[in-house]
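A further point concerns the way the authors explain their paired sequence and structure data. Since the whole study asks how a given chain folds, the encoding of that fold should be made plain. A single example would do more here than another paragraph of explanation. An entry of this sort, consisting of the sequence and the corresponding backbone structure tokens, reads as follows:

_____
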Amino acid sequence: MIKQIYDVVIIGGGPAGLTAAYSAWKNGAKEILILERDWEVGGILQQCIHNGFGIHHFHEELTGPGYAQRCYELIKEKKEIEISCDTMVLKINADKIVTAVNPHNGIFHMQGRTIVLAMGCRERTRGAIQTPGYRPAGIYTAGAAQRMVNMEGYIPGKNIVILGSGDIGLIMARRMTLEGCRVQAVVEICPYSNGLTRNMVQCLYDYNIPLYLSHTIVAIHGKDRVTSITCAKVDAYKKPIPGTEFDIACDTVLLSVGLIPENELSSEAGITLDPITHGPIVNQHRETDIPGIFAAGNVVHVHDMVDFVSEEAEIAGKYAALKAQGRVTGGLADLKIRTDNDIGTCVPQHICIQKNNEIITLFIRVRRPMKHVQITVRNSEEVLSEKHMPAVRPSEMISVSVNSGNMKSRYEDWTVSIREGL
């Protein structure tokens, strides 16, 4: 039995879900439901007690909980927005029927005229990277350790090695140091850091924490508890080089080896996923290939800044509301966006051409660090946009805006390319 029909059902109550709800409300949606599996909204921001959030979106530097609170305050008194916490979504289908469960209602169903997917992402684990060695206590993902320290009040260990230089790993290097622990090293398999430059400076350099680039862990030692790890240098193909091994004594290993968009619900619903981003293929309105189902934030592709998550969620919430009211039409694509070899990812992957002029923002990641670059968006006939940057890195997202009203040919596929040394 379908309990109720809503204009917009939003799955996930993190920054993407909260912002999408506010945007949907601003654009006329009358019945909006947020489904959140945790006991409160805010998502991952609740455990990110450091500052650096909100500079672009709220024009003020905030902590993670502070940013989440700002998002919540925008919607908390809106009678059109309903929040259901402690609610796990089990299934969605192409008819936009959502099956969920919580302690109050058991299993129940509701339908949305449109749905916004805002489930965020999860961390890669040791099993995903197949690090050899024993399986002792003391091995955690960096996000799990962050929750233990910042929300539960537990210290995972005293002598720590961090594998991977993603932002969570860098932030935890500083956090554990401030808690009196000793971070023995940060080990990164790539020849460059995978975190933001500001986190490299503020979390590693300022605390004199060693960083081993082009290295990886080849063995974890200890049966009951981690006692040490063996580290080795890697070649250009990221394979360990024999004879370069050395041991580091430690009692804890934190893994910061990447994030994966949380898309089991999307996949079961039949939504097409991008094999590179691991998120849904979307158009510039963040609509997937199932009409009426939108997606925003880290469920689409992993962001390095929550401000960009909110920017994307505003788009998804707006067009979900407009589609629920029958004020916009169109599906996934009129044209595709293609990329050259040095572009790692580009979202959106498709463009749905509208009659009115539209500023379309492309979010891009490169495959390798480059300096003095020119990013060009063009079709077969003309250059649509150009952007010059002094340096780009795979860990830092780039945004490029295109005014669709300036196009002469409206149905030519776009190509995004990057040139170095200009």
